Amino acid sequence: TSTTHAGRAVADFHPQFTGLIDAEFSTFDLHEAVEKTDIIFCALPHGKSAAIVVPLLEAGAKVIDLSADFRLKEAGLYPQWYNQEHPSPHFLPEAVYGLPELKREQISKARLIANPGCYPTASILALAPLAKAKLVDWKSVVLDAKSGVSGAGRSLKQAFHFPECTENFKAYKVPNHQHIPEIEQELGILAGSRPCLSFTPHLVPMVRGILITAYVRLTKELTEPDLWELYEHFYEGESFIRLLKPPRLPETRFVMGTNFCDLSLRYDQRTGRVIVFSAIDNLVKGASGQAVQNMNIICNLPEEQGLKHVAPLP
Amino acid sequence: TSTTHAGRAVADFHPQFTGLIDAEFSTFDLHEAVEKTDIIFCALPHGKSAAIVVPLLEAGAKVIDLSADFRLKEAGLYPQWYNQEHPSPHFLPEAVYGLPELKREQISKARLIANPGCYPTASILALAPLAKAKLVDWKSVVLDAKSGVSGAGRSLKQAFHFPECTENFKAYKVPNHQHIPEIEQELGILAGSRPCLSFTPHLVPMVRGILITAYVRLTKELTEPDLWELYEHFYEGESFIRLLKPPRLPETRFVMGTNFCDLSLRYDQRTGRVIVFSAIDNLVKGASGQAVQNMNIICNLPEEQGLKHVAPLP
Amino acid sequence: TSTTHAGRAVADFHPQFTGLIDAEFSTFDLHEAVEKTDIIFCALPHGKSAAIVVPLLEAGAKVIDLSADFRLKEAGLYPQWYNQEHPSPHFLPEAVYGLPELKREQISKARLIANPGCYPTASILALAPLAKAKLVDWKSVVLDAKSGVSGAGRSLKQAFHFPECTENFKAYKVPNHQHIPEIEQELGILAGSRPCLSFTPHLVPMVRGILITAYVRLTKELTEPDLWELYEHFYEGESFIRLLKPPRLPETRFVMGTNFCDLSLRYDQRTGRVIVFSAIDNLVKGASGQAVQNMNIICNLPEEQGLKHVAPLP
Amino acid sequence: TSTTHAGRAVADFHPQFTGLIDAEFSTFDLHEAVEKTDIIFCALPHGKSAAIVVPLLEAGAKVIDLSADFRLKEAGLYPQWYNQEHPSPHFLPEAVYGLPELKREQISKARLIANPGCYPTASILALAPLAKAKLVDWKSVVLDAKSGVSGAGRSLKQAFHFPECTENFKAYKVPNHQHIPEIEQELGILAGSRPCLSFTPHLVPMVRGILITAYVRLTKELTEPDLWELYEHFYEGESFIRLLKPPRLPETRFVMGTNFCDLSLRYDQRTGRVIVFSAIDNLVKGASGQAVQNMNIICNLPEEQGLKHVAPLP
Known about the structure:
Four copies of one chain form a homotetramer. The first copy, chain A, is of the alpha/beta class. In chain A, 31% of the residues lie in helices and 19% in strands. In chain A, helix 6 runs parallel beside helix 8 (180-191). The longest helix of chain A has 15 residues, at 118-132. The radius of gyration of chain A is 20 Å and the shape is globular. Chain A starts with 9 loop residues before the first helix and ends in a 16-residue tail after the last helix. Chains A and B meet through strand 5, strand 6, strand 7, strand 8 and strand 11 of A and strand 5, strand 6, strand 7, strand 8 and strand 11 of B.
């Protein structure tokens, strides 16, 4: 549905669908939406989603919400990180944070999925095995994050004007990016207590892809093979997690256009740090692909359905 | 001089000089070189430079060496980080590490300058004020480094083939990049004891530019204004250091083609970390520009001579 | 199969297949190849393919050859355009030039398909309707071609080293690119006599995509609506041809990763020229996608099978 | 001067000048402007420049106008190509089209310079020697033009949003780009009669640079050496024209950041066409660099002053 483009062909605005999809945008009608669909994907801006999602739920719909509006469990964090009060905090408890590798069971029964942000997906998957095993010295954790420009959406800003964006590298929103509380919340649930970590996003002159470089000290001495065993065990059977053993390291191009999260790690004996690398396509595993994965789980479809893409290399 | 291209026009291999420079490559003749020059720039690969530099020095030349062969004070580090014994360790003590902002006085009197590596230049300048003031909790230091592809030189490798390099982001040489000991050595000299820090380089799909994101905990509580005062004082009068105050942050395009090092910092109260950003052009302040700056100092010329370029934006 | 990598996992060399394909490279064994396969794709370099293809044919295989070795009907053109005599000219007559939009019938019965080059695919499809209708003043035809860097293959060359390739635009192989005789041959078959046209390739700093800008004067006065009618009629029912009506124009990103050829045209009344634009993904419709399309035709499968990709925008 | 940013530091909006230029934007005051300056550069949008330039001239200023407002001699062309009547057509006759290689003498005496557009600069310089020698069969001329994105200016548009602009190639404004009449006017003056030629601009995913590929048939049979002699003679002594002999061809990176126009040509015996290549930096020789060159001529300064830049390769 589209308010502005109702009646126009989808392919007029997304030309890649020319010759493939005949659909037109229609206006949003709540009752029609609820009746005609099994699940509704809602991809409105942060702060504007709740106003649509709540009526949909109340009318009986199942919703996968791609905004941040239902990701945080504590309503009190919204004013701090999103500059506004949450309009319907009583829905926060039942929303399930839609990261299938951690919450498959809950997702399958949910009527409201808070689809994770792109940075949190890559960050949480990087550290989940260590968090779960209570191995992390949280005071030591630094997440240095790098994202392609599509992470910023389609809105025009000077910073994303091609001549000011290509052949450039910079950090932004330092030190308070709004994805931090999501990461801390979910890793905290695994670890048993909420961490306070550093997260610094950077802009890479490419379209898609996120790479997280996570620096961690452990609370216990482990070898690199121990760590690999831990990760292999934790992610056993996961279709969309690929563990790349040394000498391999994740590269964003390996996951481009796919729902994979590629992970690798190194134990640096000199400094005593574990360095974990995590790569996803911010628009797929970091957004719509993960939403489809969640839908598959809810609808009891094969989890990989519609998601078995191969990265177009080169 | 060039062994392979002797007799050919420089502009044939560096077409940007067409119509500007008529010079031809000549073969290298040690005595002629020493007689006809005031200073010799030596830009041979690591491990091959010492064999030329030592005879030049013995024949009375002054040399600015752009390789790593004279950067480390401890000969014992060469086998560990460069996989070979140092051929002439007795020259290491007199070589001056050519970072003018730290060693202007020594440079002015030196006959052998070890011109710093690109990553070390940006890394050391980022932390020097804190190191000198003994404010750094060294166990906390993480340097997350990002570089354009020209940092890898002109040699052909699959990883730098355009279709495998563009639209991609990855880490490399984890966790043992050969620039680490330089960084630790020089920060250690300032701090009074050699640190052991994490340094992870990444490859950015752009030609030029390095951005260092440095994470540091302090040994003493300071405010952000205190930190700015410290940096302003430390770099007072430096022509090539620009301190970018909030909300500004360094971007590699601001220093592209220039000898500037742009610095900024944030104090993150949530995590108690200082985050310092440092940007240079790896081919200018990170290599040849710094070499010219060193020459200017040695020859008692204005330090900015030939180095007042403006970044070509956009 | 691979001579050098036999026994190694395909995913080691093509990391996008990690977790998706378990296959290993095997050595090439002619009899095993013929027995175990319905069709063999042969993607050897030009000049090296015939030596493998001929024995395969003689052993009873059907072959889709992606090299240029069987594309030209006149053996005499090989020395002129490829600098070598053709080793087995007696196979040239039976080879079918595998452009399904023009030769579907012949392809379906062939045992040897000469899969078209990337530039010829885009060029021929741009002008085929006009050629067939005998409307072209051939002396007027200029094909100005632009290609992404992947068109040059995976071999390392200075010209494709990222720092020398990005942020740059240039022409190459002027005026004698080896794809010219293919274009002239196939348009000549349609037109009834062999044309002699200008074709100039350029290198675009992007990975994939070809855009052809074709300038043509007509032998008869037509309006733009007449021309659109001609193109619509000619390409009626073609799954992989998309005609983009004004104000739309082809963009390479619309076809990236797909088997589509997007076409548009304008009639310029001022100059009396028709300008036709044609965009393909050089690696898909310009190579392997078209090969699969040919296989589908030969094997009597739905022609779109395995080829219904959507361009990953943005 | 700046209306919106008056009182703010120039370096705030053009960060490359940080530490180099202390100037602030001031409001525009006509009388102050005329009194305090020798020459005024006017870089307003097309259609808005005349309203400022005319009062400046009337107050006695010399003006170099970078807009299109005074480039066309026939006022009647403005409604056709720029969709508006010209407000002060009586100034068109005295405006000098500021292409120094063609009009050095007139420029030196002018009070109003119409600084040429970027495409016209590259196009006219490509064909000027042939036009002057009356060798061109004008009906045959095709100019296929490619430009980096900075040619579109700093205004935000969806088409220049990084994710929709990188890794893409397309044509635009077909067949009626507003630079066509400039090109035809100036070549017509040289040739003795106004041509009508095809000109198609394309967008290259890079920041700076224009490459023109010009296709021409001659009215007389000439060899390639004849043509080179013609070009060498025509451009003898020109500081900013570089003729690149075969096998060399212009590349936009060779002129990036410089005021050079690199030219090369090939005579294609097969088709009887001459193909001329012309490369400039659209922001330098195509705009501000040429404006400075014009200023130098008017002020009787060395023509190269302030313009001897070397392209930053790689």
